[in-house]
Amino acid sequence: MNSRKVVYLFFTTLLIGSISGAIVGLALEWSVYVQEGFLNFLFGLIWLLGISAAFSLISQMGFFAYLTLHRFGLGLFKTTKLWNNVQIVIIAFVIFDLIYLRYISFRTEQETIFHYMIMPVLLLLYGLIVAYIKAKQTNQGAFIPALFFITVVTTIEWVPALTANDPKWLWIYFAPLIAGNTWQLLVLHRLTGQGKDRS
Q1: Which of 14, 169, 174, 190 has a CA-to-CA distance to 163 between 20 and 30 Å?
Q2: Do the beta carbons of residue 36 and residue 1 sit within 8 Å?
Q3: CA distance 111 to 5
């Protein structure tokens, strides 16, 4: 992949992440941003775009870190099947922790563990959909790495917001991460010419 394509990936991910975070931020507190006139809205929008851009940079660092980790895992475990099995175990472990650790840390008397299952299960389902699309556009061997990236890497990137447990920041932080990660994952094979349509 040449430098032009790297620059394209960087700026498109930055743009997608910034816009997605700003949309979610505005949706969560629309009345706050519009109640004091146009300038308040404009400065609020600029702030949301800026903070979301920072989160999208985290998604890009996570993406390139995973590409390195994936190559390292393939070399360490020798076979793709074994490395995929290791990734499946880690996915299960992360989803369990995302449910159980948040439950024991933040539960209230009115909440059950099922309240803390919704978000991780939705993330897993979303990961399965994205992984299916990735595998269909490339090859079946891409399914587990794609699922791992969407679920595990996104969760790791999301940790600062998860530990704060502020609903507003959970979603403002999450939107650029998941949008950026999805975009990078689904566009990479087009940039490198490894899709089925180019084989």
Answers
A1: 14
A2: no
A3: 47
The pTM (predicted TM-score) of the whole model is 0.91
What one-character DSSP code corresponds to residue 141? G
Which of the 8 DSSP states describes residue 166? Answer: -
Residue bearing tokens 């790791």: 156
Distance CA 127, CA 149 (A): 8
Contact yes or no for 80/141 (Cβ under 8 A): yes
Contacts of 191-199 with C-beta under 8 Å, sequence gap 24+, read 191/1, 191/5, 191/8, 191/9, 192/1, 192/5, 194/138, 195/137, 195/138, 196/136, 196/137, 196/138, 196/139, 197/137
Instruction: Identify the three-state secondary structure at position 35.
Output: coil
Model pLDDT for residues 13-65, shown as the tens digit of each residue: 999 999 999 999 999 988 888 888 888 899 999 999 999 999 999 999 999 99
